[in-house]
Design brief:
By secondary structure, the chain is an alpha/beta fold. It has two domains: 2-98; 105-255, Ribonuclease H-like superfamily/Ribonuclease H (Nucleotidyltransferase, domain 5), CATH 3.30.420. It contains twelve helices and ten strands. The strands form three sheets. A six-stranded mixed β-sheet has the order 9-8-5-6-7-10, with helices on both faces. Strands 1-4 form a two-stranded antiparallel ribbon. Strands 2-3 form a two-stranded antiparallel sheet. The two termini are 39 Å apart.
Length: 309
């Protein structure tokens, strides 16, 4: 076993808890918190994706020179939600088995996915399926997004079955391969899928080991995505495979558990999607005042409503 030392673990969770409680933090403290999270995320890669909003916030507001490091920031709810998940999933990296880090096999399930311009197809365990990309949803997406969508849809469909197992995934799209392998992507659109995928892995406690294969080798999923069912059954019969069809409908973003139904605007990614009461907003502004000024004014009467005193 390898993990976070007990004392550092308690201090780490306490730091996240204080950040959640007060919501106001300096730029320097925010960078320190993000660095600590990214450091311990090395023990369990999916947790790294939970830093995505936080890291982008730091680059936009601090590293760009827009605000000094001693500036008090009011954290948007998107980052607070990620910190809540980090607080919840921190127990999973308290102790991590060496077999998980060294990628030694446990109970594994093989899977492969592929996407064409019109359909996505996948094979997972003894099941196979394909589905269309609908006009109002995914038809105009880039092929990399469609490939990622098929991966996410296949794992989302069998998420309850995958708990405690390792999915050995084969994929023929290099961009999608590297994004899933690193649990990170420089592309905003691809990172939406990685973010959801990592949440799925943490919530249902399964692992993904991914390998790239050529399109000619990815015969089953390639045939399904192109609706070449005769080719698919030819391969199945040649290798005497026992396959069962699983009827899969297109999974929409709103059906995924952790991605908001209203996808955040890339030009304004830190807008609050939840509603803040006016009193809460006023109180947060009060917390941003210098300590002497707060002492002179005194805490508002409604401060106890937010349990922040």
């Amino acid at each position: 076993m390898i993990g976070i030392p007990p004392l550092k673990y308690r201090l780490f969770k306490q730091l996240i808890l204080y950040t959640l409680q007060y919501r106001v933090i300096t730029g320097a403290a925010l960078e320190s918190l993000c660095g600590t999270i990214m450091h311990w995320a090395q023990l369990k890669q999916p947790t790294k994706a939970l830093c995505w909003n936080l890291l982008r916030f730091i680059y936009v507001n601090i590293r760009s020179g827009k605000y000094p490091k001693n500036h008090n920031f009011i954290l948007p709810l998107s980052i607070l939600n990620d910190l809540k998940y980090w607080y919840f999933y921190a127990d999973q990296i308290l102790k991590v088995p060496m077999s998980e880090i060294l990628m030694s096999h446990k109970i594994s399930i093989s899977a492969s996915t592929d996407a064409s311009s019109s359909h996505g197809g996948f094979v997972l365990g003894g099941y196979w399926s394909y589905y269309p990309f609908t006009i109002n949803h995914t038809k105009d997406w880039h092929i990399n997004q469609k490939e990622a969508h098929v991966v996410l849809s296949s794992l989302h469909t069998f998420r309850h079955y995958l708990t405690g197992k390792t999915v050995h995934l084969f994929i023929d799209n290099e961009s999608c391969f590297y994004a899933i392998k690193r649990k990170w992507s420089s592309s905003y659109n691809m990172m939406l899928f990685i973010y959801e995928l990592c949440h799925l892995m943490l919530a249902y406690k399964f692992l993904i080991w991914i390998d790239w294969i050529s399109s000619s080798t990815n015969g089953l999923s390639d045939a399904l995505s192109r609706l070449k069912l005769n080719d698919f059954w030819s391969i199945v019969n040649t290798f005497n495979l026992n396959m069962t069809r699983h009827k899969t409908e297109t999974v929409y973003f709103s059906d995924f558990k952790f991605i908001n139904k209203q996808i955040i605007d890339p030009n304004n990614p830190f807008q609050d999607t939840d509603y803040d009461t006016r009193e809460y907003q006023d109180f947060i502004q009060f917390l941003c005042l210098p300590l002497k000024e707060r002492a002179r004014i005194g805490y508002p009467n409604y401060a106890s409503n937010f349990q922040l005193e």
